[in-house]
Amino acid sequence: MQAIAEVSVILQRQINIMIQTDIIIIGAGPVGLFTVFEAGLLKLRCHLIDSLPQPGGQCSEIYPKKPIYDIPGFPSILAGELIDNLMEQAAPFKPGFTLGEAALSIDKDEEGQFIVTTVKGTQHRAPIVMIAGGLGVFEPRKPPIDNITDFEDKGVEYIIRNPEMYQDKVCVIAGGGDSALDWSIYLAERKIAKRVVLVHRSSSFRGHLDSVQRVIDMAEAGEIDLVTEAEVTGLAGNNALEEVIVTHQKEGEKRIAADHFIPLFGLKPSLGPIADWGLEIEKSAIKVNTLDYSTNIPGIYAIGDVNTYENKLKLILCGFHEGTLAVQSAFARIHPEKKNVLKMHQSNSYNVCLCLVWYSG
Ligand SMILES: Cc1cc2nc3c(=O)[nH]c(=O)nc-3n(C[C@H](O)[C@H](O)[C@H](O)COP(=O)(O)OP(=O)(O)OC[C@H]3O[C@@H](n4cnc5c(N)ncnc54)[C@H](O)[C@@H]3O)c2cc1C
User: Fold this and answer.
1) pTM of the predicted model as reported, rounded to 2 decimal places
2) Ligand 1 geometric centre to CA of 32 (Å)
3) Hey, what domains does the chain have and what are their CATH numbers?
């Protein structure tokens, strides 16, 4: 699938013309990719722009080998596999790709079409823009440990790209969210790491209840060392990490011999150029109308992690829903003369089927 994307990028550079499409999607993460499929069902063509050299957003860049447990129909799927599947699902609708180029500006031409220009000057023109820019520029949150940078790539990693590198190693993971919980479970359950120590400053976790329960059960079974109400406050070692210093709120300081320290405190959102496009921004995210995920600029939508609204959840599943509703609204803007109606057909008292019906008015 990536090969198709690469060919498309090369062809587009050689031709060097304005790329015309129905929907420009800024961000080829999972949400942008699924939106191609939903748009395709309505016969709308999409072109995706991403600053990264490959599609997949956070799934490809940060955790390609981490299993995801909350995609409907997949009890467990690796993030990288999910992206391969989304590329395959989008392929019949022949999306275009501009990869390795950040979208820098959005302007409007005299016909009311949007022109999106990248840092390399590639121009794209469409009546609709969907921003699926996720967290924008990825920057991990680092714990305040004085000498932490001395051990980066010498035992300290903020992202787990390849779990195999932890084979038979002692890993101290810090954090209380899904990443810390899921990776602790993964490395311990599959017996990859020799020992997994999970350090969290509180006694309650922010992750999925099921993951929290699994960690507690594994700690009781001696498969994970769980250290709560404690923080990693120091690191020691000569050429590489050798010891992690953990300070417990009541019991004081403890030194743990370790090969790796993996603080998983999430990523700092930084919108980058998106912040300068005249969109209404709140808490580093784009405010949207939950009716159709439109922004304050008519014709521009924001879907996935990049948007914000009351009760927003930054989950892939929620982004899929947002993209689906946004393309319905985009269809109505592009084809005001056509009615695109989701109709409910009651076939019997138990079975209800949804049927997409188009009316040309
Ligand atoms: C470690 C970890 C584990 C997770 N586990 C789960 C999980 O189990 N289940 C779950 O549902 N969610 C999980 N998430 C969250 C999930 O990854 C996000 O909700 C999802 O990636 C959001 O998808 P997206 O397409 O909106 O954005 P992203 O995946 O962030 O993709 C956005 C893309 O936009 C690009 N971009 C940004 N600005 C520009 C620009 N100006 N020009 C061009 N491109 C731009 C970026 O390069 C990026 O590729 C996890 C996240 C992390 C970090």
Assistant:
1) 0.72
2) 10
3) 2-138+268-357 (3.50.50.60), 148-263 (3.50.50.60)
